Amino acid sequence: MPYTVLVTVGSTRFDALVHAALRDDFLDAVRDVGGADTRVVVQYGQSAVSPPWRTEPVRSAGVAWERAAVRGVEVLLGAYVPELRPWLAQADLVVTHAGAGTLLEALRAPQRPRILAVPNGALMDDHQRELADALGADGYVLVGTPRALPAQVRAVAHAALAAFPAPAPHALDALLRAGP
What we know:
This protein has 7 helices and 8 strands; from the N terminus they run βααββββαβαβαβαα. By secondary structure, the protein is α/β, with parallel strands linked by helices. It has one domain (3-178): Glycogen Phosphorylase B (Rossmann fold, 3-Layer(aba) Sandwich), CATH 3.40.50.2000. An 8-stranded mixed beta sheet has the order 3-4-5-2-1-6-7-8, sandwiched between helices. Helix 2 runs parallel beside helix 6.
């Protein structure tokens, strides 16, 4: 099974993150961390994508992708996936836009991939920054920027990240029963 990096921007547009994930220095960093058998899956949402290399169309897990081999890394590019969970199950590292749903799904993935949260400051008053910073302060994720992505990929590979707590579905019920 290849070392897999999932880069995801959800359903929005985050050109800076997508473009950073297609750069040679990012692919070199990923290969340095993952070794000879490395794959990068880029889910780019509404972002403008024009890879600087030739791609071929492929289907994987029912999704249409464009595939290329670049700098010793297999790269898959796709706009959307119907469900993120299967891709998270394969991921060793998730580089995400810091959306709440994506972050929580990645944090709760059974194999616990490392997470690099890259807030998209262009969205609604930079709301992703607050969540990413809080999760970073608690040690669950490393918070990054598109500009420093290669160095941050190397850093998150060696970071001591905390395990995210399991959901406690009965905690709210107990709190409500306890009353004021």
